[in-house]
Amino acid sequence: MHPYLGALCGGVLIGLAAVLLMAALGRIAGVSGIASGLIVGGAGGRAWRLAFVLGLLAGPLLLWWLRGDSGIGAPQVGLPWMALAGLLVGIGTRLGGGCTSGHGVCGIARLSPRSLLATAVFMVFGIATVFVLRHLLGVGP
C-alpha cells in the first residue's frame, strides 16, 4: 500500500471517530482531556473515556496482529528519554490548553481561533525541533 494512502485512511478514521464521539456523546475527541479525565476525573463519564483509551491502544495491536508487525521500528532512545519526552508533552499540553487532537482535529473543525493558533504553534515548534535535532545536533535518521 502506498504510504499516502495509509495516512489518508488514518486521517479519515480519526475524523470519523471525532464526529461519532461528538454525535453520540457530545464530547470533543481531545485525547489529553479524555486521558486526564480518566485519571483525575470523577466517576461520571469514566466508562466512555476508558473505552476510548483502550481503543487507542487496541488499534496498533490489531495492526500488528493483522500484518505481523506494526510497521514502526523500535524507539532509538532509552526509557529515560522517552519518560522525559512524555513529561514535556504533558506540560505543553497543560500550558496549551489541549493537545493536537483537541485543537488540530476538533478545534479547527469548530473554527476556533484559539485552536487555529495553538495548532500553528504546535507545527512551528515541531518543525523547529526536528530541524535542530537532525541538522544542528545530528540526532536521528
Write the layout of secondary structure elements.
Layout: H1 3-25, H2 31-40, H3 46-67, H4 79-95, H5 100-109, H6 113-136
Helix pairs in contact: 2-3, 5-6
Question: How much strand?
Answer: under 5%
How many H/I helical runs? Answer: 6
Residue-averaged pLDDT, rounded? 87
The quaternary state of the protein chains shown equals single chain
Protein model, in words:
- With 141 residues, the protein is mostly helical.
- The chain has one domain (3-136).
- It has helices at 3-25, 31-40, 46-67, 79-95, 100-109, 113-136.
- Helix 2 (31-40) packs across helix 3 and helix 5 (100-109) crosses helix 6.
- The relative contact order is 0.09.
- The mean pLDDT is 87.
Label this structure with key terms.
single chain; 141 residues; mainly alpha; 6 helices; 0% strand
Summed up, what is this model?
With 141 residues, the protein is an all-alpha fold. The chain contains six helices and no strands.
